[in-house]
Amino acid sequence: MEYKKVKLRDVCTVKQGLQIPISKRFKEKAPNRYFYITIQFLKGNTEEYYIEDPKESVLCTKEDILVVRTGNTGIVLTDVEGCFHNNFFKVIPNEKIYRKYLYYALNNEYMYKKMLNAASGTTIPDLKHSDFYDLEIFLPEINKQYKIVNILENMDKKIKLNNKINDNLYEIQKCYFQKLFRDNSNYEIIKLDKLCNISAGGDAPKEKSNLKSDKYNIPIISNGIDNDGIYGYTNKAKITTKSITISARGTIGFKVLRNYEYYPIVRLISLFPKTDRISSEYLFCILDETTINGTGTTQQQLTVPMVKDIEIKVFDRKLIDKFTTFSIKINDKIEQNKKENQILEQLRDTLLPRLMNGEINLDKIKV
């Protein structure tokens, strides 16, 4: 049974965000100040700004739905609160649609492309309210909306649980590292250039896809934080050994240990040991203890020569081996959880359109 289609104007309204001059943005928290939600925040910029006494219409809670109209057109987010920038608009559901159902109806690959296409025709895509309202979604009865959300939410809850487990595993690894090395004075100071091969990412490959497939199964890695910086997928790897990546712009210093093949692109630096003095696991944790700063006044950046000059402590090899053996077990479990999340995300994204268009009979599904 196929559900009816409705235009978004029939089930919601929108509220536009507000452009705040830099002179009226504050870096300190204070009463009546609200976190300013911007495109830079989406890109992982850690510098926070606050707005004092904004209009109620440009405030959102964690329950609200925001859509990016320009800058990263088509991105949908929730679970953030504060004052939202003019690049966003807030989507307010009416009584015909369950808020969480509306969120899932908007936050998927199909609707992302629809919004991007609706905003095309300009140098910088800008999704007008009228074009957003003209987009269509499937609208089952309200009780079926709740059931669809329950199915999708159960998968998202498992994904969040795995992420929380991984956060705890990272902390356990960090604590063990500090236990072994913090009060140990028997070490050498050595530059990374003597210990690692270091390279910068290049342009994105011509052959790529936003979705993983049999043909495109090599992750393209950028400097982002979300999803470990996975930007898309291609068919040929540039890095084929276990390595560490460091973001070189925007999210400077964000590090990931990667035990898989990948294709690094601009704003990303890759490091992998070229000597048996250290392991990738040790390198990842010692870099986590090392302050990494960029240069530049307008926009900070990190370069390969700068990374080569970073000095780290190198302890006794037997002690590093002891840590590495422990760390490998931790990282194996982290990778298992990440792979399970990828499967759950693919399953959710496959089921979502079929649940919403009525292709899957909800009466046969127990939640």
Concise description?
34% of the residues lie in helices and 22% in strands. The chain is α+β, with helices and mostly antiparallel strands.
Strand percentage = 15-25%
Helix content: 25-40%
Task: Give the beta-strand count.
Answer: 20
| First-residue to last-residue Cα separation | 20 Å
User: Which term fits the overall shape?
Assistant: globular
User: What is the rounded Rg?
Assistant: 23 Å
The helix tally amounts to 9
Query: What is the strand arrangement across the widest sheet?
Result: 3-5-4-9-6
By secondary-structure content and strand pairing, the structural class works out as: alpha+beta
Largest sheet: 5 strands, mixed
Rounded mean pLDDT is: 91
Secondary-structure element sequence? Answer: EEEEHEEEEEEHHHEHEHEEEEEEEHHEH
